[in-house]
Write a structure and sequence with these properties.
2 copies of one chain form a homodimer. Chain A is of the alpha+beta class and 245 residues long. Chain A is 45% helix and 13% strand. The longest helix of chain A is centred in the middle third of the chain and has 24 residues.
Chain lengths: 245, 245
């Protein structure tokens, strides 16, 4: 099999890094790899903030629930869905920026940022580094935005921590292909497929934890729905003047 | 430089494919590569619809503005931000699915789908195939949803057409690194950086078109803001019961 495809299939998240910063050259290569991803109508509607300042990292780690790998890492990147750049261009050219306030444009910026981030993740692993996404920066989106000086028309979406792995791991089994892939139209999938995957995941946890954990995947999904979280997201996004219409 | 990183940096979109379908094995490897991407809290909140039916492809091509590479391709994939799976699990376990209706959960699903798509794009290029994202399926999101039988709690985000390239091309120059990358906090960037990039892009078009096109990047961005498009996106998403709160 192709080496790049093999690398993709071998991905796992790393949650412990050596205390060794990435070099400027590494950071630049990672950012340029991110930039090489496809972008909707060439709009490149994202920014990447590299956080090296220990005080900011400490605060982001606190917001994210005390994860040490937000602080102790090679470099911490925050991906921002960014239409503020377009807003600045509108101002300089006396255009009306109202179209930036549509849900369509917000989707464009979120998707652009995510495509770029995944390219960075792939580049990092190709460079022998480990990665972990930090969605938990959204635990306090207002505080994160203040900390990172995020302007209107922009949303800090997630962190991506990249560094030298302290230990190796192995991929976590994904859903069976048949649960994800549909032919020609969306199909409701058979219960048996979920049951088989539940067994896979329960066995996976049992083996990894010596029996301490044994929950199924659908148990996890149900648990994750019990209480709504990050209920300030809609108000925050609207305050940023995005997704208003 | 590492071969995978080199591949990422060499990306360009392909807009003409041979009339040669991908094999089942290729499709499965592409989908499994997509699935190997990181996913928020392991929720895997997306579905991938492979469209081989020529009638559906024809209609999707029409909606997307008549692009031939939506029809004549190796395989056409549609990526769906999918919380309907979670809804089904909620029903089977008598959980309340109300938390799926938050903007936070919608973001999770959109980001998960985009990360998976970019992994598929990288895998495709590693396999010697070409790719192009088709955001233009959102030109008529209602019609696309009807065509693909998309249930509530799900949004068809974009297409990804993958096939054997009919011709090679070259990467389009991205923004200078300094316009995308910020250190420790969001920084408003100097006008000179935009001016330099405008020259790069104007030269790029001049060379490619023998002078027929010579617009700058900021001209394009300003032009793209002139009239809001896809104004039904917010109502559609809310009808799907997503992003309601």
């Amino acid at each position: 099999m192709n080496q790049t495809v093999e690398q993709l299939l071998s991905h796992y998240s790393v949650r412990a890094f050596l205390d060794k910063p990435l070099s400027e050259d590494q950071i630049r290569l990672l950012v340029e790899s991110a930039q090489a991803a496809s972008t909707s109508n060439f709009v490149q509607a994202y920014s990447i903030i590299g956080v090296s300042d220990p005080k900011i990292r400490k605060e982001l780690a606190r917001i994210s629930g005390g994860m040490s790998y937000v602080e102790k890492t090679g470099q911490l990147f925050v991906f921002v869905a960014d239409l503020n750049r377009n807003k600045q261009i509108a101002e300089s050219k006396r255009e009306n920026p109202a179209s930036l306030e549509t849900t369509e444009k917000m989707l464009v910026a979120v998707i652009d940022a995510a495509l770029a981030a995944q390219n960075m993740a792939v580049a990092a692993e190709a460079m022998g580094l480990g990665i972990c996404y930090i969605g938990a920066i959204r635990n306090d989106i207002e505080r994160v935005s203040a900390l990172l000086n995020i302007p209107e028309y922009a949303i800090p979406l997630f962190g991506l921590t990249i560094g030298y792995p302290e230990q190796n791991s192995a991929p976590k089994p994904r859903m069976p292909y048949q649960l994800v892939y549909h032919e020609n139209e969306y199909q409701t999938k058979e219960t048996a497929l979920y049951e088989a995957y539940d067994t896979t995941i329960s066995d996976y946890y049992t083996n990894r934890t010596g029996g301490v954990r044994n929950e199924t995947w659908t148990d996890q999904i149900a648990e994750g729905m019990k209480k709504p979280v990050r209920m300030d997201m809609k108000a925050f996004i609207e305050k940023q003047r995005l997704g208003l219409k």
